[in-house]
Design brief:
The structure is a homodimer. By secondary structure, chain A is α/β, with parallel strands linked by helices. Chain A has two domains: 271 residues, 3-Layer(aba) Sandwich (Aldehyde Dehydrogenase, Chain A, domain 1), CATH 3.40.605.10; 180 residues, Aldehyde Dehydrogenase, Chain A, domain 2. Chain A is 38% helix and 18% strand. Chain A contains 14 helices and 23 strands. Chain A has a seven-stranded mixed sheet with strand order 16-17-18-15-14-19-20, with helices on both faces. A five-stranded mixed sheet of chain A has the order 21-8-7-22-23, with no helix packed on it. In chain A, helix 2 packs antiparallel against helix 5. The longest helix of chain A is centred in the first third of the chain and has 30 residues. Chain A is globular. The mean pLDDT of chain A is 97. At the A-B interface, strand 7, strand 8, helix 7, helix 13 and helix 14 of A face strand 7, strand 8, helix 7, helix 13 and helix 14 of B.
Chain lengths: 527, 527
């Protein structure tokens, strides 16, 4: 089944000359399959097919689209152990994680399918005509959200299933009615290809138009750049580094027709530990933080890369327990030698920064491509002076910033860049005294966590996985949860449209039984 | 009262050396007041004040903010005839238009005040905790929309009240909880200044923080550029030309922290006249179209700059009546000599394009700065070959494109750029036969109008005043209507937040009595 080809609409194709292989970081060897990078011609074909499919696909009924998404979920589950084994061989991640991520992927598809059946995502709004209004009559206006058109999704290195071929970006864009072209991540090209086969199978089964989905192999920047430059492309979803996301954003902004790029990028996810809670629970929180820092070798966008507290014996005790816990963690292989190498460099670079001292961490290389957890500490004064210390080190690394007092803590949080999350650990009573700190933190983040760690992102309506730049390129949108669909929709208003020509969501007799805003009031009544 | 000064927070200031005056296009003379362009120092002061005001202002209760907006409306009405006279002297527009636009401005402010009282704009969403969920517990997640921070509003030349100092951008941004800095339009600096005094008066009366609003005089690009480069600025609202909007968009995209720019720019608003309806109603539609083309000297963003039909005797008849109606219109002065001159150049340039022929229009200069209505026609084949013919000529100009048949019409619509609106005039029966044309048109626009002209933009929840590029820089947002507020808000999610620390909109006992999405269902119950 794994042939290394690109999936262009309903065809498999390998017309390019450049090939590459994925890597098994645990065995420390290349995997066997040879992948053919998409050629300029293949990229253009995928774009043309997507463009051709877009009108038909935009017009499919919401329940037809829901069937498609559910069929994708079924087809992914049917890949069974083949998918799990391939996933593990391309990531070094354990089978449990593979299955967990598959569940999340399938659940996301089914969640968007339910949203389609329910229909409120189109935000149907009707203002009825008032022909007799003075001084001028009011026309009949009706508005719904319609799809933007073909979307490019850039697979994430650290979520080969849940943020790649059939991940949250693809699921939300397909739900919105947009054709999707995935630029596969080179590190898990096989996993992406296998999942993409499942999507194509589902598309055929549910009679979706060819071009509603394509999957392009890619080992560098060329495929992505070609996609970004095409006038057929209408938006981009990306998960990855700040430099990668910003490069796409810049390309998109320079186009004759600029298009939205939602890039979910770097974040250090500061965790602030308040003094009162550390008096009684420093041991418990040290263990929880250690787990969060080292979970999945720290390869999560919500990994806590900065810890902050007020220097006193309780914080020292917290650091001691944290050190003990971290030193007990057996390092696991990171996703790829390139990632492990970058981590080692980043970590070493932090150790060389003025004022940082070693708190905990393994030093010897026990297994190939190991992500050895490391905790450093630094004074808040040194931290504030050195912006390099504010940057993310992708992996199981965290920097403990020791502040002198509340003001020192507030000032340190205040100069952080935009983040996906910030966590504040404190007793309910002491949290009340830190309202200014909480306000400062809220201004920096998309999600403010109380007495919890940032890892673990619930997929639901109230989740916001986004945040001020550089955590994302547009703080107004989320990559996770129901509202992720909003990135791919735009409103269109119909003025005085005959009922028979209106989309179903706006017809007088409300055939989809939607809750609609009619003359300002939410109601499911017919007109 | 009119002192030509900048309004920086609660102070009036004229520290710059560059001065300019506004112009009365009817009298063809400069107005007397000397305006002082904001200096770099004054711009920085306005930005710093806005930044300082932003946290406090973001935390004001929705009803407090509603009081502020209503107080602005009251203060504008209290300016009474002073404002109307100044408006007329700076625009050449008649008193009726001034009063109409004032009504719209005041109504918009009151509409956003009502939205604040009602509260659904914050999209409150709650997912309750499930501590016993397997395999892992679900945390408590609550989400609302919060303000982005300081916004710059660039006043529109053609809406000195409704899209300038206290216009739709300012009203929606203030409603969202964002401080606003207006870069006044140089052509109506006095009107902007007078309205801004009213805003400051209202801010003081309702105890809003200094810096919640500032008004900067500006005669060129410098003030805008300085605003765009400031890290304090978080978003931009602009109404004007494609070149102006794109320049701001490009500046914003190049920042270290890119910020959203919502620019509402050019649009030719095609009006398609189908054959069947012209058989019986060509006279009626010719009159309606003539009025729409010449309304306000054609100085509306929804002015119909392209008319399209299938060449036959009925279309010829339509053109004849249109010519008769257009020739009967007495040209009015345009807003400013610069605009009149640009119009004359643009119009003349169109007449020089290959294949265009004259249909109607006055030729002699009857009054100063006259916007003389002109209609040209061209074949669809020539139209498609020459992209210059697709561009907007700002003023009472329209180009009648004669198509051979349906396919010719579809192809011509298909190559238009993004538009605010398209209108289709046809009998209900014939509209059914043009489903492909309607689909093509829908893909190009933000508002699809049936049997109506594009001028006249209703301010309500179902309006969408936006559209694909280049009509705006982001088709997902609107500049008019309730949803205009969405441009200035971002979601923030609170995880496991103690009830007492939650914003009112998310507290268990629902003190604001909001309709909230709780575990996926809209309800106003308490928790």
């Amino acid at each position: 089944m794994l042939d290394g080809k690109n999936i262009i609409g309903y065809n498999r194709s390998k017309r390019g000359s450049h090939t590459f292989k994925t890597f098994n970081p645990i065995l420390n060897i290349e995997n066997k399959t040879q992948f053919y990078e998409a050629s300029a011609e293949e990229i253009e074909e995928a774009l043309t097919l997507a463009q051709q499919a877009s009108t038909f696909y935009a017009d499919t009924s919401y329940s037809h689209r829901a069937n498609f998404l559910n069929a994708i979920a079924d087809a992914i589950m049917a890949l069974d152990q083949d998918l799990i084994e391939l996933y593990c061989s391309e990531t070094g991640l354990p089978e449990g994680r593979a299955k967990g991520e598959r569940s999340r992927t399938v659940n996301q598809l089914r969640m968007f399918a339910r949203m389609l059946e329910e229909g409120s995502f189109v935000e149907a709004s009707i203002d009825t005509a008032q022909p007799d209004r003075q001084p001028s009559p009011k026309v009949d206006l009706r508005k719904i959200m319609i799809p933007l058109g073909p979307i490019a999704v850039f697979g994430a290195s650290n979520f080969p299933l849940a943020y790649s071929s059939a991940g949250g970006d693809t699921a939300s864009a397909l739900a919105a009615g947009c054709p999707v072209i995935v630029k596969g991540h080179p590190m898990h090209a096989g996993t992406g290809s296998l999942v993409s086969s499942a999507i194509v199978k589902a598309a055929k089964e549910t009679s979706m138009p060819e071009g509603v989905f394509s999957h392009l192999n890619s080992s560098g920047h060329k495929v992505g750049e070609a996609l970004l430059k095409s006038p057929h492309l209408k938006a981009v979803g990306f998960t990855g580094s700040i430099s990668g996301g910003r490069a796409l954003f810049d390309l998109a902004a320079k186009r004759k027709e600029p298009i939205p790029v939602f890039a979910e990028m770097g974040s250090v996810n500061p965790v602030v530990l308040l003094p009162e809670i550390l008096r009684s629970s420093s041991e418990e929180w040290a263990k929880t933080v250690a787990q969060s820092v080292t979970l999945g070798s720290g390869q999560f966008c919500t990994n806590p890369g900065i810890l902050m507290g007020i220097k006193n014996p309780d914080l020292d005790h917290f650091a001691e327990i944290l050190a003990r816990e971290i030193n007990q963690v057996s390092p696991a292989s990171m996703l790829h030698p390139v990632i492990a190498e970058k981590y080692d460099t980043g970590r070493a670079n932090m150790q060389q920064q003025k004022g940082t001292t070693f708190v905990a961490g393994a030093t010897e290389k026990s297994i190939p491509n190991a992500g050895r957890p490391v905790i450093l500490k630094v004074s808040a004064a040194e931290f504030r002076e050195n912006p390099k210390l504010h940057q993310e080190v992708f992996g199981p690394f965290s920097l403990l910033v020791e502040c002198l007092n509340i003001e020192d803590l507030e000032r340190s949080v205040a100069l952080l860049e935009g983040q996906l999350t910030a966590s504040v650990i404190g007793t309910n009573e002491e949290l009340r005294g830190y309202d200014r700190l909480l306000k400062i933190a809220e201004g920096k983040v998309g999600r403010l966590i109380f007495n919890g760690v940032p890892t673990g992102v619930e997929v639901c309506a109230s989740m916001h996985h986004g945040g001020p730049y550089p955590s994302t390129t547009d703080s107004r949108f989320t990559a996770v949860g129901d509202d992720a669909i909003k990135r791919w929709l735009r409103p269109v208003c119909y003025q005085n449209c005959p009922d028979e020509l209106l989309p179903a969501a706006l017809k007088n007799n409300n055939p989809l039984n939607l809750l609609r805003r009619i003359d300002g009031k939410l109601t499911s009544t017919k007109l």
